[in-house]
Amino acid sequence: MAGGNCLDGGASNPRRYRIRYSVYARCTQAASSPIGRNSRAVPSCGVRHACPSYLSENRALRSARVSDCAKGSSAVKSRGRQWIDQTLTHIAIIFAMGGLWSCITSSGIKPEASMIEPTSLDVGDAIRASARSDAKWPSSEWWNGWNDGQLDSLISRATSGSPTLAIVRSRVTAAVWEARALHANQLPELDSSADIAHTRFSQNANPSPPGGETNWNNSVALDLTYDLDIWGKNRAIEQGAQSKVHAAVADEQFAKIELQAAVARAYNAFALQYALADIYAEINQEEKRNLEIAASRKSAGIDTDIDVTQARTQYQSGLADIIRTRDGIEQSRLLIAYLVGEGPGFGASLQRPLPYGRFGSAVPASLPAEFIGHRPDIVAQRWRVTAASKEIDVAHADFYPNIDLVASASLQSLVPFGGFFSFVNSDSFGHSVGIAASLPIFDAERRRGKYGVATAEYDDAVLKYNDAVLLAMREVAEQVTALRSLEDQELSVDSAVESSKRSYELANSGYRGGVTEYLDVLVSQKIMLQQQINLALVRSRQVDSWIALMKALGGGFDGDTGRSNMISGGSNAP
């Protein structure tokens, strides 16, 4: 290597360059220096600027690097323009889809009914006259005003063991599970699948391979689906289901109060039969004595067979009345046993009810404003109105596109016999991610029809709510009016009972003294008996009306807390 300032001998490959520099005057051998894409070669002689070969090589490297950068920049710009074009295309498609689905609308369909405001109703003179500021809403144990431990036990047994109430509770459970199931619509759904098959492919139906071959056709996959719920359809479905749960809970409370009232009414009828039995037994004793007197007078030649026959007929009729009331007592026992969820034999253990006192007709002064929250049937209907409104939202969401996010990952292989596990490796892996959309364009007004049905059902729920409010107000007014009337009736009938007793005593003593005829005794006795029965019926009706008033006022239900009011002393009984 002689005969010049620099002798160049080099070799190169795609990844590495080697350049040899020699300087005749100062170097006795060549020096090697590796040069990468991002490095610069420096001659061992240290003469960088004086070596033409060095300068030429580095200019070539720099030119190559600039060319590569230019090509990369051009590729990036090309990909950017492609992405922008695709994005604009997608946006244009979306706007075009919007123009298509705008052809299906819900215009012209809307609810027409509106809910009644209870404070706007005229409660009437009867309720206004009975309203008192110190009157409380019924407590959850309103029957304690009866002061009968046996009744307390019966109602407690009924609320825990009645099949009727258990049926209503099962509806609550079903509503809760339905709400949970519908809540799942808002969450992603992940499914897995596996197919393991030893398959021979038909040579006449498939190209070869795999036609004419027997292969393992195996796959394992995971599929993810997520409804983006952009228009809130799934949320409305879940909220509607939750409203139905609230309605079912309120229905359960209403059924519980109805059952409590039914047990109390049956117990009151049980007490009435005992009261009537006492009246008939007392009268029958008088009839027996009159029969004995008539027989004695006939023996003495004072009376005739007619008087004896009349006395015997009256006595036998009284026995029939006693037998009839005994049957009424047994029927009441059977009814109570059924209501508390027990067999017929349970009624035989019931004792005679304790005497009941007087019950007032006062109602809370806040009746119109707070009435809705204390009636579980009205609360239930109000929740059904809410559920119906959510059905409108669901039907309205169907007018818009449904967009789902979908993704899948799988391991798949199709290999000859003997490669069973060949699908369990990275080369068999595949995946996909994307969206799935459905767009309403033309449905022959199917969606408008469903939306119209939803709005009509909402109107139906509102009208039923209004009817429930009016019916509840009527029930309160009826029972308040009845209680006030029965109070006056009791005073009048009580006076009539005393007067009829006096008349009977005079007629009976006159007959025994031979002053009056037995017909006078029969007439006065019939009047006295009827007045005593009337008094027993009036007092029983008072209790029935008071029970109905407690039920009409909500039976202790408190809609603000969703449960019965457990505050002590909340009974409406004075």
TrEMBL record:
GO terms for cellular component: plasma membrane. One of its GO terms (molecular function) is efflux transmembrane transporter activity. It is a lipid-anchor. It is found in: Cell membrane; Membrane. SUPFAM superfamilies: Outer membrane efflux proteins (OEP). Pfam families: OEP. Keywords: Lipoprotein, Membrane, Palmitate, Signal, Transmembrane, Transmembrane beta strand. It comes from the Bacteria. Belongs to the outer membrane factor (OMF) (TC 1.B.17) family. NCBIfam families: outer_NodT. This is Efflux transporter outer membrane subunit. It comes from Paraburkholderia pallida. The lineage of its organism: Bacteria, Pseudomonadati, Pseudomonadota, Betaproteobacteria, Burkholderiales.
